Amino acid sequence: xxxxxxxxxxxxxxxxxxxxxxxxxxxxxxxxxxxxxxxxxxxxxxxxxxxxxxxxxxxxxxxxxxxxxxxxxxxxxxxxxxxxxxxxxxxxxxxxxxxxxxxxxxxxxxxxxxxxxxxxxxxxxxxxxxxxxxxxxxxxxxxxxxxxxxxxxxxxxxxxxxxxxxxxxxxxxxxxxxxxxxxxxxxxxxxxxxxxxxxxxxxxxxxxxxxxxxxxxxxxxxxxxxxxxxxxxxxxxxxxxxxxxxxxxxxxxxxxxxxxxxxxxxxxxxxx
Length: 272
Ligand SMILES: NC(=O)c1ccc[n+]([C@@H]2O[C@H](COP(=O)([O-])OP(=O)(O)OC[C@H]3O[C@@H](n4cnc5c(N)ncnc54)[C@H](OP(=O)(O)O)[C@@H]3O)[C@@H](O)[C@H]2O)c1
Prior knowledge:
Belongs to the short-chain dehydrogenases/reductases (SDR) family. This is Short chain dehydrogenase. GO terms for molecular function: oxidoreductase activity. Keywords: Oxidoreductase. The chain is of the alpha/beta class and about 270 residues long. The chain has a single domain, classed as NAD(P)-binding Rossmann-like Domain (Rossmann fold, 3-Layer(aba) Sandwich), CATH 3.40.50. The protein contains 8 helices and 9 strands. It has helices spanning about 20-30, 40-55, 70-80, 105-135, 155-175, 220-230, 240-250, 255-270, and strands at about 10-15, 35-40, 55-60, 85-90, 95, 135-140, 180-185, 195-200, 235-240. The strands form 2 sheets. A 7-stranded parallel beta sheet has the order 3-2-1-4-6-7-9, sandwiched between helices. It has a two-stranded parallel sheet with strand order 5-8. Strand 2, helix 2 and strand 3 form a beta-alpha-beta unit. Helix 4 (about 105-135) packs parallel to helix 5 (about 155-175) and helix 7 runs antiparallel to helix 8. The chain is globular. It binds NADP nicotinamide-adenine-dinucleotide phosphate. The site of NADP nicotinamide-adenine-dinucleotide phosphate has 31 residues, from helix 1. NADP nicotinamide-adenine-dinucleotide phosphate (NAP) binds near residues 64 and 189.
């Protein structure tokens, strides 16, 4: 089959770990040109070497996506190096695990919005004129929590609903430009994000705490599904069968969806 993404310039935020890192590996094998961004430059430079070995010309850019200046610099450096951007994949994200009433530090809500939502706004804004030239693609990694609320995740879920609303609006605005917008809504994926979340006091553990559960989707399967959706230029990728049903079942039985989600969350945390 013809490799339709060969020689494309692919910028990945949140590339140092988890889904972003695995996407970087999988794209590197497709002979693309890679721009890898996140805050941890050491991890990025290590990854850059691995991607170079796989045959992909790669640069890393230290970027905090909650800073609009950093996002502008990231886009400028990508253009400076490769002259164009074809695919902007926005994986950078943080999470929380605390019932709303238990929260002691309301700053959690600002941080979640700054990274998960505003990071996408800033990077899309500075990349847009370049993406119009290449008739490119914006890929925003949301979550099933952007389709329906989950207990313990008020701020995270709100940030992902914001991503969905932003992406759906932007897609309509861009309909005659050739730029497409893909929203990816994974269910639970075996990355460290599941163990590294804001708690009620606003602290976030930086340590790897546990091995992710084996019976949730692997990060390599998740990245492969994203890559396939990018090649097809899909507008939505919802990763689980249950996730695909959520909008429909919510119309007729919203309380049932609430119960289902509450049980699923309880079971998930009982098992990790
Ligand atoms: N894992 C899941 O179960 C799951 C499910 C649904 C959706 N998602 C979504 O998928 C995306 C990736 O999640 P993941 O599981 O791969 O998480 P992860 O393993 O924790 O990786 C998160 C990535 O985001 C980067 N990041 C965090 N804050 C940043 C900031 N301010 N600026 C730039 N980069 C930042 C981190 O790099 P640095 O620390 O180096 O900055 C890291 O590379 C997120 O948007 C998440 O919400 C994950």
